[in-house]
Amino acid sequence: MRLFRVLATALLGGALTVGASGCLKKALVNGQIKSTRDGSAALNTLHDWEVARAAGQAGLGTLEGMHSLAPENVDALFMLTRGWGGATFGFTEDDYEAALARGNDVEAEYHLARSRAGWNRAVHYGVELLGHYALGFQDAKRNVSTMRAWVVENFNDPELAEDLVWVGYAWIGRVASSSDMPEFVGELYVGVELVKRSVELDPKVAHGTGHTILGAYHARTAQSELEDSKKHFDMAMKVNGGKFLATPLNFATRYYCAKRDKATWEKMLNDVLAHPDDLPEARLQNTIAKRRARRYLTHPDVFTENCGFDL
C-alpha cells in the first residue's frame, strides 16, 4: 500500500507536470499568434512588390504551422483567411494577368488554377472562423433570406466587422475566379451578405474595403445596379479620401467600365499611377493597385473586353 501511494503520488505529479507543460505550450503559442496578428500590419508598409511577395508567401507557411499547433485560435484563422485572400489577389492573380498580357494562354490557365486553389483555402479558413462565433452556417446559406437573417442575428459586435469583410472578400474572390462553375456562382450572395453586414457594423474597416467590394459587385455587368455601385464607391472614397488606391482602381475598372465611359476610366487609372505615397500603412496595397493600373492602361485590348470601349 505504501508503495502504491508512492507510485500514485509520482504519477499524479507527472500528470500535473505534463498538464502544466501543455498549458504553458498552448499559452506560448497563443501569445505568439496574437503578437503575429498585431505585427502583421507591417507587411502593408512595404513598397517593393517582390519583397512583399516573398515575405507574404513565407508568412503563410508560418501561419499554417501555427494553426496546426493551435487549431481553435481565431487570430490564426483570421490571418489565414486574410493572408490567403490577399496573397491570391495580390500575387497569384497578378501572375495570371501577366500571362494574359503576354498572350500565353497555357500559363494563364495554370495560374488561374492556382488562384482558385488560393481562394478555396481562404474560404475554408473563413468558414471555420465564422463557426467560432455562430453555428448553423451551412443551413444559413440556403438562400439570400436565410443568409441575411443569420448574419444579422449572430453578428452585432463592430469588432467582428473585420472578420466578416475578409471572409466575404474570400468568398466573392472565389466566385470571380470560378465564373464557369455554377456551384460557386450560384452562392455569390453568401459573400455579399457577409460584406454587407461588415459595412453595417463598421464601414471604415480596412479603409472602406467593404464599400469598395459592394461597389464592384453592383457593377458586375452593364445590366447591374449601377446607381448602387456608384453609391458604394462614393462612400469608400469618402472613408479613405481616395488615398486607398484599390477604391479608384475598382471604380474605374468596374463602374466606369460598365458605364462604357472610356475617358473617365483612363483618367482614374492615370490618377492612380500619379498618386503620391501618402498612406504608408497601405503602401503595399497601393503598389499593387498601381501595378494593375499600369497593366490595364498598357493592354486595354486584353483587360477591357467587357467594357465596350472603342479602342
Report on this model:
This protein has a single domain (2-303), classed as Serine Threonine Protein Phosphatase 5, Tetratricopeptide repeat. The protein has helices spanning 2-39, 49-69, 74-102, 105-131, 137-140, 144-154, 161-176, 182-185, 188-201, 209-218, 226-240, 246-258, 262-274, 283-298, 300-303. Helix 10 packs antiparallel against helix 11 (226-240). It has 15 helices and no strands.
Shape: globular
CATH architecture: Alpha Horseshoe
Tell me the distance between the termini: 94 Å
Helix content: over 70%
Query: What's the CATH first level?
Result: Mainly Alpha
Poorly predicted parts: 1-20
Largest sheet: none
Could you say what the CATH topology is called? Serine Threonine Protein Phosphatase 5, Tetratricopeptide repeat
What portion of the residues fall into strands of 2 or more residues? Answer: under 5%
N-to-C series of helices and strands: HHHHHHHHHHHHHHH
Identify the notable features of this structure and list them briefly:
76% helix; single chain; Serine Threonine Protein Phosphatase 5, Tetratricopeptide repeat; 0% strand
What's the topology here?
Elements: H1 2-39, H2 49-69, H3 74-102, H4 105-131, H5 137-140, H6 144-154, H7 161-176, H8 182-185, H9 188-201, H10 209-218, H11 226-240, H12 246-258, H13 262-274, H14 283-298, H15 300-303
Helix pairs in contact: 2-3, 3-4, 3-7, 3-14, 4-7, 6-9, 7-9, 9-10, 10-11, 10-12, 11-12, 12-13, 13-14
Condensed summary:
This protein is mainly alpha-helical and 311 residues long. It has 15 helices and no strands.
